[in-house]
Specification:
The chain is an alpha+beta fold and 124 residues long. It has two domains: 3-42, YefM-like domain (YefM-like fold, 3-Layer(aba) Sandwich); 44-92. 52% of the residues lie in helices and 14% in strands. Strands 1-2-3 form a three-stranded mixed sheet.
Length: 124
């Protein structure tokens, strides 16, 4: 794939042309500021290839991590947090009946009529 290097000023002045070169010509355009590369303009096909390579690397890393965990075991998150003095990040449940996340639904209110009947019964 052909590669072109331009300054930020040239990229700004010829942006549409550089996009066409990347899109239709498959060129990769390196944009430099003060002689240092800061960005690249590539086609969406190039981007898809790059992303698929990243995904493949992520899968390999995950597989390696799972093998290591199977060999050496794992450590519970709360133990790691305590070890590093991050106890404040440990989530503690509010009550044993609380659903995941510690959120408890508010108590249900009685229907208004039932509340009025109950109130009258207390008076009489």
């Amino acid at each position: 794939m052909p590669t072109v290097t331009v300054t930020v000023a040239d990229a700004k002045n010829h942006f549409s042309d550089l996009l066409r070169r990347a899109e239709y010509g498959g060129e990769r355009v390196i944009v430099e500021r003060h002689g240092k590369p800061v960005a690249v303009i590539v086609s969406t096909d190039d981007l898809k290839r790059l992303e698929s390579l990243e995904d493949l690397a992520d899968v390999r890393d995950a597989q390696a991590a799972l093998k290591e965990a199977a060999r050496h075991g794992t450590i519970p998150l709360d133990a790691v947090l305590r070890k590093h003095g991050l106890d404040h990040l440990i989530i503690r449940r509010q009550s044993p009946k609380a659903p995941r996340g510690g959120v408890v639904a508010p108590p249900r209110r009685k229907h208004r009529r039932a509340a009025r009947v109950a109130k009258k019964g207390r008076r009489g």
